[in-house]
Amino acid sequence: MTAQRRGISKNPESSRQASSWRGNVITLLLSEILTQPRVFTVECSEDYKKYKLFPGMHPFIEGKHCFFWPNIDCFLFECVFIPFCCVHASILDLHSGALSMGKQFVNIYRYFKNEIRDVFTEDFELYRDVCSRIQKAIAETFGLDTKQIYLTKPTFFSRINSTSAKNTHDEYWHPHIDKETYGSFDYTSLLYLSDYGLEFGGGRFVFMDPSSNRTVKPRAGRVSFFSSGSENLHHVEKVPWGTRYAITVSFTCDPNYAIDNPSLP
Ligand SMILES: O=C(O)CCC(=O)C(=O)O
Ligand SMILES: [Fe+2]
Question: Which residues form the Fe2OG dioxygenase domain (predicted)?
Fold first, then answer.
C-alpha cells in the first residue's frame, strides 16, 4: 500500500470529470447546499420507550420522524484521496484510523507514521466542515439546536464493489436498524461520493416502510439523513458492478457518546 495524493480543481466541471479517476480512491466532495431537502415523515417508533431520552430526541417523541435526501449535487469541491490502492478495503474510520483489508483491519496512522501528513493535508479541516454542515442541516430540519446533537462513532468512509464479503460486517445488504447496529446513533447521515448507474449498479439505499419502500439513488454529493431507530429500517442493494463510495456521519444526543472531530495523531 503506497501513500498517494492527487490534486483536483475546485471547478465543478473538472470535478465531474475527476469522478472517472476514482477507480481505487475515495473522493470527498462538498460545495454549497443548493436545494431544499425532501422530507418524509414516518410513524413514531415505540422502541424509544426503552431508550434513555435526551433533549435532541424530542422529534422522535412527538412522532416527527423524518428522513431526507437533499439533492446537493455540487455540495463540495475539494477532495481527499485515501490510499485504498490495490486492496480489498471496504471501511476507513478517520477517527480511529481503522482501515479494513479483507478479513483484517490495519491502522493507517500506525502504518504510515509521519508519512500520513503527506497523505492528509487540508483534508481533516474539510472533513470537519462536512460534518458541521450536515449537523446544521439535521438540526434545522428536525427543529433542534446544533448543541443537542454530537458527532459520535463510528463515522466512516465505505467502499462497496462486487467482490465477495470477507466477513459479516461486509454484508451491507441485510436489513438493519442503525441504533441497534451501532448503539450510540440517534441520527444517521450518508454522504454519497459516486453516482448510481454511472459508476456502479445496484447499491441503492432502501428504507423498508411497512406500506411501501422508499429508495435513495446515490449521487456524488447527495446527502441523506434520518433518525436511526426502527422507524427507519433499511438496507443497501447488492452492487453487481462498479464501485460505490459513501461516508457515514453519525450523531448522538447522549453527551457521553460524543466524540471530537478527527485529527492527525
Ligand atoms: O451506505 C449506505 O447507503 C448505508 C450504509 C448503512 O446502512 C450502514 O452503514 O449502516
Ligand atoms: Fe445502516
Answer: 153-254
- Probe target for ligand 1 pocket from 248, 250, 251, with the most ligand atoms within 8 Å of CB: 248
Residue 156 CA to ligand 1 centre (angstroms): 10
Reported confidence tier of residue 184, pLDDT bands at 50, 70, 90: very high
97-104 long-range Cβ contacts below 8 angstroms, 24+ apart? 97/265, 100/166, 100/169, 100/170, 102/166, 103/166, 103/167
pTM to 2 decimals?
0.81
Q: What percent of the chain has pLDDT over 90?
A: 23
The alpha carbon of 47 and the centre of ligand 1 are apart by a number of angstroms equal to: 21
Domains of the chain: 12-257 (2.60.120)
66 Cβ closer than 6 Å to some ligand 1 atom: no
Question: Cβ(157)–Cβ(199) under 8 Å?
Answer: no
Q: What is the ipTM for the molecules in this complex?
A: 0.99
Please indicate whether residue 128 is annotated as part of the active site: no
Q: What span, in angstroms and rounded, lies between the C-alpha atoms of 142 and 148? A: 11
Residue of minimum CA distance from atom 9 in ligand 1: 248
What is the structure's pLDDT at 238? 92
Contact 103, 167 (CB under 8 A): yes
